[in-house]
Amino acid sequence: MNFEVRSDDVWVISMPKSGQEIISELAWLAQNNFDLEAATSSSNSIRVPYVELKALIGFTSDSFAYTDSLKSPRTVKTHLPIQFLPADLFVKKPKIIYIYRDICEVVLAYYYHCCAIGCFTGTKEDFVECFMKDDAPYLPYWNNVTNFWRRRGNQHIHYVSYSKVKKSLEAVLKEVCEFLGKPIPSQEVIGQIKEHLEVYDEVSELKKQIKTNEELKSITEKELDIDFKLSEESTRKLKDWSARFLSENGFSAEDFFLSWSFV
């Protein structure tokens, strides 16, 4: 809460597994004159710190002190809900990019992530039930998403959907540049940026993680493709549960461009 925010910061905020890595990398590049050489010489986690990591993993280095030590302009990422963020964030008003994603995609990606790092054992159906009961880190989901949606009209907050990132990365790149007040690079550089960002393809990365899991490494690529889906029943549960929350709080699925097509 007392972490010192700088007015020239860029904060990239989202729920877990919502496309934060690719947007934080894009934001860092825009803040640093699209220096691809520097971007490839160190990892995103070094250049764009996950500010609350120390609070989650006690044995890691002090992420708060590390983030504080970085030279301006900083690009910072977090999954924290709005009530746990530094108070200065809405006083000094640095640029905030909030990225959201269809909840069915989030749940599926979060399930595989939790399995891969060994913090969850069970079926996808089990995880869906846990998710709807807020029984996983950073939940509840909709409170996090809608609290920023309500503030999307603020000039220092930019709201972007992961589906748009996947469909039109170049358009998102231009939007981010405009939001941050940075010049749009040439088409040649845009092509290089798009190639650089291919390493942040989440599905490919998740498949690599799954292949390292002893219980799942025997699954064939074909089976993996088939298994990379939620069941119709799980999708319907998430859809109904989300629709109830949104309706009760004055929103609708259409507000978030949700297609419910991830089946």
Question: Please, could you describe this protein's structure?
Answer:
It is globular, with a radius of gyration of 18 Å. The protein has a four-stranded parallel beta sheet, sandwiched between helices. The N and C termini lie far apart (39 Å). It is an alpha/beta fold and 263 residues long. It has helices at residues 20-31, 36-41, 44-47, 53-56, 63-69, 103-116, 124-132, 141-149, 162-167, 169-180, 187-197, 202-211, 221-227, 232-248, and strands spanning 10-13, 75-78, 95-100, 157-161.
Describe this structure in a few short sentences:
Helices cover 49% and strands 7% of the residues.
The main pleated sheet reads as: 4 strands, parallel
Work out the radius of gyration: 18 Å
Give the neighbour order of strands across the main sheet: 2-1-3-4
Helix content: 40-55%
| Unreliable residue stretches | 259-263
Strand content: 5-15%
| Quaternary structure state of the chains depicted | single chain
Q: Please, how many helices?
A: 14
- The sequence of SSEs as H and E is EHHHHHEEHHHEHHHHHH
Could you tell me the number of beta strands? 4
The gross shape turns out to be: globular
State the separation between the terminal residues, measured CA to CA.
39 Å
Label the structural class: alpha/beta
| Mean pLDDT, all residues | 87
Keywords:
263 residues; alpha/beta; four-stranded parallel sheet
Topology:
Blueprint: E1 10-13, H1 20-31, H2 36-41, H3 44-47, H4 53-56, H5 63-69, E2 75-78, E3 95-100, H6 103-116, H7 124-132, H8 141-149, E4 157-161, H9 162-167, H10 169-180, H11 187-197, H12 202-211, H13 221-227, H14 232-248
Parallel strand pairs: 1-2, 1-3, 3-4
